[in-house]
Amino acid sequence: MSDGVGDTGVEEPTADPRSADPEGTHASTAMPTTSSWRDYGEAELPVPLAAALAAFAEHGYHGTSVREIAARAGLSVPGLYHHYPSKQSLLQGLLERTMTDLLARSEQAVREAGPEPVKRFDAVVESLLRFHMYRREQAFVGSTEIRSLEDSYKQTYIGHRDRQQHIVDEIVFAGVAAGDFETEYPKDAARAVATMCVGVSTWFKLDGELGADELIRRNLVLAREIVGYRRS
């Protein structure tokens, strides 16, 4: 499939960061309200974004045409452009929602865990794992399609990712300072833990042999080993 819209007869407008998400989801970093960071139902995405997600996950951004997204959404191409002015704006809107949801859940998990570094560490690791299991397609597209983002939004997206990593970094450094973690390389350890959690989106299946809770239990053990958890 083509990357542009040559097969539709409609010229694709250039993405404008001010209009890439008409609902304003990347004009602000306001976080969505979640009743619990552990609760996951179906992702609440507008129909065009849900269609774009399915197509991007299956074919990749450059392998997906606007006409295919419109067809999946049950819209004409001009009708799709009425909501999102370009394919790039669909990608940006989708990734902004992904990151605001991820950050909201991580921050809620850490906040509810209290002040102890070990409990905060376990909470953020569990939150990252759950997100990358239950929002697998969104996480996968976010990880693989950063290369497809235009510069006007790419730095914003990288900023969100850095913010998530910083949450993990701060907890690991606090654990080392408190004597709970013994790693000599806290920043590297924090990066390794986050990478392990993100990687779940590339292979985990909710209907597979390994259940979600068991995966979390095993990965919490591994995460604690990475940071050198000192058992009291």
Number of separate helices: 9
Beta content: under 5%
Order of helices and strands: HHHHHHHHH
Largest sheet: none
Q: What is the second-level CATH architecture of one domain?
A: Orthogonal Bundle
Q: Which overall shape is indicated by the principal axes computed on the Cα atoms?
A: elongated
Instruction: Determine and state the CATH class of one domain.
Output: Mainly Alpha
Q: What structural category do the secondary elements indicate?
A: mainly alpha
**Whole-Å distance between the termini?**
58 Å
Q: Which ranges are low-confidence, i.e. pLDDT below 50, for 5 or more consecutive residues?
A: 1-34
Taking Cα atoms only, what radius of gyration do you get, to the nearest Å? 19 Å
The whole-number mean of residue pLDDT values reads: 87
CATH superfamily heading of one domain: Tetracycline Repressor, domain 2
User: Can you count the beta strands?
Assistant: 0
CATH topology of one domain: Tetracycline Repressor, domain 2
Q: Helix amount, in percent?
A: 55-70%
List the helices and strands and how they pair.
Layout: H1 47-59, H2 66-73, H3 77-83, H4 87-113, H5 117-134, H6 136-144, H7 151-178, H8 186-199, H9 212-227
Helix pairs in contact: 1-2, 1-4, 1-6, 4-5, 4-7, 5-6, 5-7, 5-8, 5-9, 7-8, 8-9
Question: How do you describe this structure in short?
Answer:
This protein is mainly alpha-helical and about 230 residues long. The chain is built from nine helices and no strands.
Could you explain how this protein is built, in words?
Residues 65-84 bind DNA. The chain has 232 residues and is an all-alpha fold. It contains nine helices and no strands. It has a domain at 94-227: Tetracycline Repressor, domain 2 (Orthogonal Bundle), CATH 1.10.357. It has helices at 47-59, 66-73, 77-83, 87-113, 117-134, 136-144, 151-178, 186-199, 212-227. Helix 4 (87-113) packs antiparallel against helix 5, helix 5 (117-134) runs antiparallel to helix 7 (151-178) and helix 8 (186-199) packs antiparallel against helix 9. The chain is elongated, with a radius of gyration of 19 Å. It starts with 46 loop residues before the first helix and ends in a 5-residue tail after the last helix.
